[in-house]
Specification:
This protein is α+β, with helices and mostly antiparallel strands and 369 residues long. It folds into three domains: 134 residues, 2-Layer Sandwich (Gyrase A, domain 2); 116 residues, Alpha-Beta Plaits (2-Layer Sandwich); 81 residues, Elongation Factor Tu (Ef-tu), domain 3 (Beta Barrel). It has eight helices and 21 strands. The strands form five sheets. Strands 12-13-14-11-3-15 form a six-stranded mixed sheet, with helices on both faces. Strand 8 and strand 9 form a beta hairpin. The longest helix has 14 residues. The radius of gyration is 21 Å and the shape is globular. Bound molecules: (6S)-5,6,7,8-tetrahydrofolate. The site of (6S)-5,6,7,8-tetrahydrofolate (THG) has 16 residues, from loops.
Length: 369
């Protein structure tokens, strides 16, 4: 395979950890919110096995924060998401679809409630800040919206709990899933949440003090030796097996949260006011016409760089494959697909062309594991 390098510039931003991950052997980048996001450190499959048994440190600075503060901040955040935040608490994270007036998904951030009038939207790869600004201007809201210089380090994997306890002390073991608090590292406070884009457990450190964060990055590797710590990044195989959805890959503005299985984050029967509410109510009463499902294919390799057509036995197009990989767990290709009604039933057989060869497969529920 021919390989290319990425041309760096101010437009595709480096992170405070870029020079470190390059010394550590990053082999592929993607871009995320106009920033470098590592995509591989050698073999994806080796990293997958390592992530499931040890601990990795990830440069996920590309998960940028959109800070919304001021008198109308809660109103604006609620206006953008279909998840009811009226009972939300300071010190908690909330996974929230951001939608437009038609119910189309604009982003799926983790929302952190820093205070009654201060919020961070930890965003996936789309320009949420512009959407928020447009709404605030149009609605004449009293808010301040900007991108603070926050650069997340994720510590993921089953041994992340022991490593973080070693670095931050026993207190951090009391932090609950999707809770956050401030913890001391050599005299600097860091916001840490128990969260992350893997199902192997772990933390995310929202680094505001860059210098301390770089020191912390190095310390995690120094103190992590006994836990076999390695550099890593969001792992395609692990995240597909766990069905952690990737905005822009598995879903985009042409899909709504009901089609993506986000029903529990869609509060249509509450009093709250958000854009797209009436539209989503209509969609709910008429019923969705496509649905995000899992798919298992009798193939040994795949690389998805655009949607692949999915057909039934009669070659009728019944959906599209959006992400896929070879799964060491299932010993076949698994993927995330948008399947048209009525073909989304479990066990529906499907056909798919991969590199001019036809393979058979079956529709299944998400998550795979
Ligand atoms: N962490 C932070 N910011 C992020 C991501 C992250 N921004 C971009 C992207 N990832 C957003 N997407 C997701 C998708 C899933 C989850 C988090 C962010 C996630 N989901 C859990 C699940 O599906 O089981 C929990 C959801 C819940 O209980 O509310 O964690 O990874 N900072």
């Amino acid at each position: 395979m021919k390989t290319f390098s990425i041309a760096k510039s101010r437009r595709i931003r480096s992170t405070p950890y870029t020079s470190r991950i390059e010394k550590q052997g990053v082999t592929a980048y993607t871009t995320y919110n106009h920033m470098l996001l590592p995509a591989a450190f050698g073999s994806l499959e080796d990293s997958y096995h390592h992530l499931k048994k040890s601990v990795q440190v990830w440069d996920v600075a590309g998960e940028r924060q959109v800070e919304i503060s001021g008198k109308d901040s809660a109103k604006l955040v609620q206006l953008m998401t279909c998840r009811d935040l009226s009972k939300s608490k300071e010190g908690r994270c909330y996974y929230c679809p951001i939608i437009d007036d038609k119910g189309g998904i604009i982003n799926d951030p983790v929302v952190l409630k820093l205070g009654e009038e201060r919020w961070w939207l930890s965003i996936a790869d789309s320009d949420v800040l512009l959407y928020a600004k447009g709404l605030a201007i149009g609605k004449k809201f009293e808010v301040k919206i900007f991108e603070p210089d926050v650069n997340i380090i994720a510590v993921q994997g089953p041994k992340s709990f022991k490593l973080m306890e070693k670095v931050f002390g026993q207190k951090i073991t009391e932090l609950k899933f999707f809770g956050f608090d401030y913890y001391d590292f050599k005299g600097t406070k860091h916001l840490i949440a128990q969260s992350g884009w893997s199902k192997q457990g772990g933390y995310e450190i929202y680094v505001e003090n860059t210098k301390s964060g770089q020191d912390l990055y190095d310390t995690l590797f120094e103190d992590g030796k006994e836990f076999d710590v390695k550099p890593g990044c969001p792992n395609l195989i692990e995240r597909i097996e766990s069905a952690l959805l990737s905005y822009g890959n598995d879903m985009d503005i042409n899909d709504n949260p009901l089609e993506c299985g986000f029903d529990k984050y869609v509060s249509l029967d509450s009093e709250i006011d958000f854009l797209g509410k009436e539209e989503l109510k209509k969609i709910r009463s008429e019923g969705i016409k496509k649905k995000l499902k899992g798919i298992k294919i009798d193939a040994k390799e795949i690389s998805v760089t655009r949607s692949l057509k999915i057909m039934d036995e009669n070659n009728t197009i019944i959906g599209e494959l959006r992400s896929a990989c070879y799964s060491p767990h299932f010993k076949q290709v698994i993927g995330i697909a948008m399947i048209n009604k009525p073909y989304w039933e479990d066990k529906q057989t499907v056909k798919i062309d991969i590199n001019d060869q036809t393979f058979e497969g079956k529709v299944c529920d998400l998550p795979f594991i």
